[in-house]
Every structure is written in structure tokens, then in C-alpha cells.
Amino acid sequence: MKALRTPRERVRFAVAVLVVLAMQVGLFFYFGGAFLFSDVPYAGLDFDTHITQAYRVVEGLEGFNRTWVYDVQLLAGAPNGVIFDADNKGWSLVTYAGKQLGLSQGFSFNLFILAAHAGVVPLVYAGGRLLRVGPWGSLLAAAFAVLYWNFDSWSHWCWYVGMIAYGLASLVFVLPLGFFYRWCDERKPWQLVATAVSLALAHLVHPYTFFILVFPMLALYVRAFPSLRLRGQLGVFGVVACVLLVNGYWLIDAARFWHYILDSSLFANTGPKSAVWDLLNILVEPAATGIIGKRAVFRTLALLGGLSMTLVWWRRGDPRALPLGGGLVTLVVFGYLGGWTPLAQTQPYRNLLPAGFLGCILTGALIEFAVRERVFARFSKGARWTVALVSVPASLLLVHEALYYFIEDLPTPAKLPHGEAAQLSAMGFPQHAPYDYGDWHVDPIAEWVREKDDGSGRFLVEGWSWGEQLAWKTDAQIMGGFIWRNLQHSWSNFFRRRPQGIASPQEWQQYLDTYAIHWVIVTSARYASPWWDHNPTLEKAADLGDFRAYRVRKPTGFIVKGPGRVAASTNRIEVYGTDPAQPVRLRYHWLETLRCLPDCTIERVTVPGDPVGFIEVAAGHPKDFLVFNKYAFPN
Q: What is the pLDDT of residues 75-96, one digit of tens each?
């Protein structure tokens, strides 16, 4: 398609832009986007984990000038802001920046989610233009990206469940790729600066940006290498240095705590069979592809269009074929075969999300090419009729894909002749969730926890989202949260050890005693089991809607043996009234950066079933002392 040369063409283009933007805005609000315009952070599912992470970083920056803290509210004390939140760095900084600018902390958190949804059209369009796709082709790519973002099951699941950082990274990556492509071709200094800045920020959004871009940017660099002079080589290394400099603060902290790392390959990890399931829209691996009905036709169309454009470029000798087409193929192969490699730890199925967006851009270029070259006009009359006829069921298939997400507005099937309702939705399956943003706050539970919490013991909470939500909504010390946290501290969570909540009486009693559990909160799926109501260690305390709370009949305190009391807050454990002649063992996780004042020393003691161990203050300590996070690592 030719450039926008006349005022009429520009007006038509502006109208088309407004239509595409209206489409994205309309879908955004249809799927509950209004919930994000609130001073309350959007909660539920993985969002609660990210709220806890972001709020702790804000607390660390405001109170201690650090981006991580020793968090006493989760998992008997654990470092929060290192390793596990590697995908939350940009989100946390946006939350902090918004708050410093006078916005509420909750709305500042929501800003990051809003940025992801708002970025679909401008980022895909900008990526297309940087990669020398014409204005109409780039706009078509953006329109296709809107459909892909909302109606592909993996894409939709990512922004619905809370993997919004990777969703935004899957959009932002086109900027450093486009800038670097332009620099390799034109060698203008501003293009390299733009590459450095956008690449550094993209890695702050999500560190797995590296895996998205490693092939296309390396291919561009290798091809440009023979013509690069010393200045150009230094410029490329300057880009790398900029990325490391901007992200160095959290990379250093992650390296210092790397010895606590656990397996991360439990989710988004697939094999070659998954490609077949995706093509057939069959859900087989919900832990890998999302707990949502498989709907991958928009993605398949984007990938096929991208591969077709790659072949066109290859045959015409277009220099974009290798870096872009090769990048597309690499992402798809990595997505389905990465689980067979050590990169399984990166949850490789994720890579299909940026692959789809890159495919949207290449598909836009393909349509632009087909119109410019009048490809369809060269078809025979029979071929044109065939294409037209095939397009009808193909279009209906796409509409059917999209209707899955409008389940609440589809007609209700009529009752059977004898008056019984059919146990099916209009889609022909049992009714499923609408998969839109909603109100996932459980304030009555938070109020109850605040009422019962006296700081003397912990709340064991089943259901990772609820545990995280109570950790950021209250000051209570929660044993719970995301079960599969990739830090060794997560083994202190009973429901990681025993996902079904089943343990021998001896193991259960030992657990309650070891971690000073005073209250237990379980969901209806759990308390439906008589084991909880008839457990001799527990006494029913309250019914809280879909939750039930129990009081531990004989709870232990935070001090293992001897007199004393504890008052804990972020980075601080204050201990009072102890016996100086006896060592004091605290039911808090040891950490190498903790120190003791005045005139006391900390030792690490082993705990059965817990690889981290607890804190012990050696005998000869004062009656009252303070254990605090000094942020000082041993040499």
C-alpha cells in the first residue's frame, strides 16, 4: 500500500485508527476494565502475589532506601523483592513512582495493568513502522493484535490471571527490535540510543525479554558485524552495558540469594504434542496453557501469516526475512520444545505470546504486500471464487472463537420438554467463567483477621491468592501465599508440603508447633472434609462465606523455649523479657543479612523439613534485643 500522500488518504487513515482504538477500548471495558480505575489495587489470582511484591518494594524504598526487605508477614520471614519477583521490577517501580507523584498506591499499581492494555495498538503499530511496514499494513497488524490480545486463549489468560508483565513485555519488545533493525541499516546514533533505552526498560518489565529478542537481535548484529567500525562495536556493547546498568540493582541482589532458588518449570512447560492440541483447540495441559478453554485460531492465523510473509521476503532477498522470520520460528520452536532443555525453568510456552504479536506484524505486512502487488487480481476466476467461499466458514470460525468470551451475553438454551434445564451453555459445554476482570476482594476475611491478630502467632491460609491478599491487606503474619514460590522458604507452607491438606496427626501437630500457627483458614473445598471440623487440634472459630476459620487449641509462641515476647515488623524482630543465660530460638527464618543489637549474635539452626532454618541468639544476650536486617552480606 502506498504512503499517505493526500489529505483524503490521511483522513481515511485517521478514521481507521479511531476505529481500531475504539475496538480495543470497547473490549477493554467489556472485560471489566473499569475495575482498574480505582484507588484499590486490582486483586485476585496472581494479581495478589504481585500486589504483595510491589507493596513490599514500595515499603523498602520509602523506609529503607532498598528495593527488597526481610518480610516477616510471609513464610516465617523471607526476602521479598529478590528472585521470585524478577517479573515484577517494572511493576513495582511504576507503583512507587505513581505514589511519589501523589497518586494512591492502589491506582499506581493498576497503572501498569492499564499500560499493557493501552499499549496493544500503539506498540504494534510502532513496531510495524520501525520494521518498514507501511502505515496501512501496520494499522492492520494493530487491529489483528487487538483480536489476538482478547481472543487467543493464552494471551487472554495471561492478562486475566495476572501475567500482565509478560504480556506487556510481549508488546514492548518490538521497540528495541525495530530500533536496532533501523540502526543496523542506517547507523544513526539516536537509533542506537533508543535501542539501549527501550531494551533496558523492556528487561525491567520482564527479564525474559532476553529470550524473546536473543535470536533476531543476534542475527542483525552478526549480519552487520563486517561493516561495523570500532565506534559501532563500542555502541553495541554500550547497549548491553545500559541494559545491565539499569537492571544491575536487582540482578546483584538475585545473585546474592541464588542459593535459595527452587524449580520454576512447573507451569507453562509443554512439548511437541502441545502444538497438535493447540491446532485442534483441545485443552490437555491446563497447568501449561492456562485454566481456560483452548482457543488458538487467531494465534495460528497470525503465525501462518507471519511464516508466509517470511517466505515472500526470503524469495525476494529482503533482509528482514532472517531476523524477523527466524525470530518467529525460534519463538515457536522454543515454546514447544524448550521444556526439553534447561530453559524449561523459563516456562517456555510463554514464548508463543510474543510470537503471536510478531506474527500480527508480519501478517499486516503480508496483506499490504498482497494489495500492493495486486496478488488477488492475478488469480483466475475459479481461484477467486474458491477463496471467497472458503473465507465464509473461516470468518465464522473466528467469530465462534470470539463468542467463547461473551458467554454471559449469549442466549440461554431453552428448557427440555419436561421442564428440565439443559446442563449446557449456548456454546455447547457446561457454563464456564466469563474470564473478565471482576471484584475478587474478600474484605470480610481481612476484617476478621485484623480483629483476631494480636501479633502472637501466625495464620495458616489455604489458597495462595487469599494468603497473598491477607498479607498485603493486613499486618498479620501469614503462612501461605503462592504455593510454588521458587524460594526454599516456601517449604514452610503446609500446603506446599501437603497440597491436598492431608498429613498424619504427628506431622500436623509438629507443623503447628514449629511455625507458631494460631489460626487456620480454609476454603469451602477444604472444610467440606470432616477432617477439619473433627480435628482435635482445632476449634471452629467462624464461617466467613466461602471460608471457614479455626483456632488452634494449644498454640505455641514465636520463642521456642523460655520466657519472652516478640513484636515483628518489616526488617525488624523486637524481642523482650528473655532469659540472658539461655539461648533464644525464634520461629523466624534465618537470613544472612540479619544482625542483632545490642551485644548479641545470631546463629542458624536447622529445622526438620525446612531447608532454610531458624534464628537462634546465643546465650549472653541482653534481656531485650533487636534482630534487624542490616542489608550487609557476609564476605
A: 999 999 998 999 999 999 999 9
For residue 444, what are the contacts with CB-CB under 8 A and spacing of at least 6? 544, 545
Q: Domain limits of the chain?
A: 7-30+121-372, 42-118, 443-552, 565-629
- pLDDT of 481-528, one tens digit each? 898 999 999 999 999 999 888 889 999 999 999 999 999 999 887 777
CA 595 remoteness from chain centre: 33
Question: What angle is formed at CA 347 by the lines to CA 341 and CA 351, rounded to 5 degrees?
Answer: 95
Contacts with 276 (C-beta within 8 Å, 6 or more apart), sequence order: none
176: left (phi over 0), alpha (psi -120 to 50) or beta: alpha
C-alpha cell at 56: 513490599
Phi, psi for residue 273 in degrees, rounded to 5: -60, -30
Tell me how far apart the alpha carbons of residues 139 and 136 are, in angstroms, rounded to a whole number. 5
**What does the pLDDT read at residue 634?**
81
Among 486, 481, 432, smallest CA distance to 47 is for 481
381-403 and 297-316 are packed helices; what angle lies between their axes, rounded to 10 degrees? 140
Which H or E run contains 27?
Answer: helix 7-30
CA atoms within 13 A on the CB side of 95: 29
Max intra-chain CA distance, the chain? 98
User: Using CB atoms within 10 A of its CB, is residue 319 exposed (0-12), middle (13-18) or buried (19+)?
Assistant: middle
- Asked if 299 and 352 touch (Cβ cutoff 8 Å), the reply is yes
Residue 599 identity (one-letter amino acid):
D
Residue for cell digits 515484577? Answer: 88
Comparing CA positions, the residue from 354, 346, 365 lying closest to residue 329 is 354
pLDDT above 90 for 264: no
